[in-house]
Amino acid sequence: MRRPQRLLQLGLTLQNMPSNKPRADRAVLAGILSWILPGAGHFYLGHRGFAAVFLVAISTPYAVGLAIGGIKNSVNPWSNRWLFMAELGTGGYTTAALLANRTMSELPADVVSQVIAKNGRWYQSLSPTQRERYQAALVKYVSFFPESDLAQIYLATAGLLNILCIIDAIARAATGGLPTFRPHTETEADGGG
């Protein structure tokens, strides 16, 4: 019988609490900032040390992945969709790299993946001399196995790490700066603490 009374009292207490809308707004903004630039959400929340650590820990593998694999086939949603989805965890970096990918050569990213894989309707319609010409043009833009695989692993790891950074920024904004919610004791829930 005591448990329903506690739940009723807790429900009434929650109705009388002030709105958490400003905290929710801060959490959403911190998450978006972290998605655009790793550590920016923490910087916004005032956690400058965490911001610096996240910026370096996420930007370094992303930069290494781009340096190893280049942009043409490393940041390409048509080459490997699943790894590209992981790369999207670093939204600002991946968006900038995808835009650069589109401007680097006369071939769009979807065509590049067809030339690399040597399949696709567009690729099959080319003559053998045109195929050789496109493959030769891509050599300066594209990395091949094992470098391309290693590059995608670095980029995907950076994206997945940034997702953890985003979650941490949202949690810290929602809890007022703590990494987790403060545990409540039973006496606090009864109103006696």
Count the E strands. Answer: 0
Output mean pLDDT: 78
Helix content: over 70%
Largest sheet descriptor:
none
Strand content: under 5%
Structural class: mainly alpha
Q: What sequence of helices (H) and strands (E) makes up the elements?
A: HHHHHHHHHHH
Number of structural units classed as domains = 1
Uncertain runs: 10-19
- Shape by Cα distribution: elongated
- Global Rg: 24 Å
Number of helices: 11
Describe, in plain words, how this protein is organized in 3D.
The protein is mainly alpha-helical. It has one domain. The protein is 71% helix and 0% strand. Helix 2 runs antiparallel to helix 10 and helix 4 packs antiparallel against helix 10.
SSE blueprint and pairings:
Elements: H1 2-16, H2 21-36, H3 40-45, H4 48-69, H5 81-87, H6 91-103, H7 109-117, H8 121-124, H9 128-138, H10 147-175, H11 186-190
Helix pairs in contact: 2-10, 4-10, 5-10
Question: In brief, what are we looking at here?
Answer:
This protein is mainly alpha-helical and 193 residues long. It has eleven helices and no strands.
Keywords for this entry:
11 helices, 193 residues, mainly alpha, elongated
